[in-house]
Automatic annotation (TrEMBL):
<dbReference type="GO" id="GO:0031012">
    <property type="term" value="C:extracellular matrix"/>
</dbReference>
<keyword id="KW-0892">Osteogenesis</keyword>
<dbReference type="InterPro" id="IPR002384">
    <property type="entry name" value="Osteocalcin/MGP"/>
</dbReference>
<dbReference type="GO" id="GO:0005509">
    <property type="term" value="F:calcium ion binding"/>
</dbReference>
<keyword id="KW-0732">Signal</keyword>
<keyword id="KW-0891">Chondrogenesis</keyword>
<feature type="domain" description="Gla">
    <location>
        <begin position="67"/>
        <end position="97"/>
    </location>
</feature>
<dbReference type="Pfam" id="PF25890">
    <property type="entry name" value="BGLAP_C"/>
</dbReference>
<dbReference type="InterPro" id="IPR035972">
    <property type="entry name" value="GLA-like_dom_SF"/>
</dbReference>
<feature type="modified residue" description="4-carboxyglutamate">
    <location>
        <position position="71"/>
    </location>
</feature>
<protein>
    <recommendedName>
        <fullName>Matrix Gla protein</fullName>
    </recommendedName>
</protein>
<keyword id="KW-0301">Gamma-carboxyglutamic acid</keyword>
<dbReference type="GO" id="GO:0051216">
    <property type="term" value="P:cartilage development"/>
</dbReference>
<keyword id="KW-0106">Calcium</keyword>
<keyword id="KW-0479">Metal-binding</keyword>
<keyword id="KW-1015">Disulfide bond</keyword>
<dbReference type="InterPro" id="IPR058704">
    <property type="entry name" value="BGLAP-like_C"/>
</dbReference>
Amino acid sequence: MKTLLLLSILAALAVAILCYESHESMESYEISPFINRRNANTFMSPQQRWRAKAQERIRERTKPAYEINREACDDFKLCERYAMVYGYNAAYNRYFRQRRGAK
């Protein structure tokens, strides 16, 4: 009987601790997490947006070889599974490197 009383007190204490809501968690309700449509594009000026798009195009053109190989391997399911065990370099060599050498 004593253990049952002790367990119920511990359970009540655990519920009180876990369900306590501090005022810090209420701060998120004060500020709306969403921005209206009119202000959505004001984070970046048009010049910054253009510069970001240009940099993205440059990054896409000048990808390293390992990233191109990894993307090719990601598109082929067997290669992706093999890569999870042996790594992307070994998987690319097994599934794609042989085909290039045969051409």
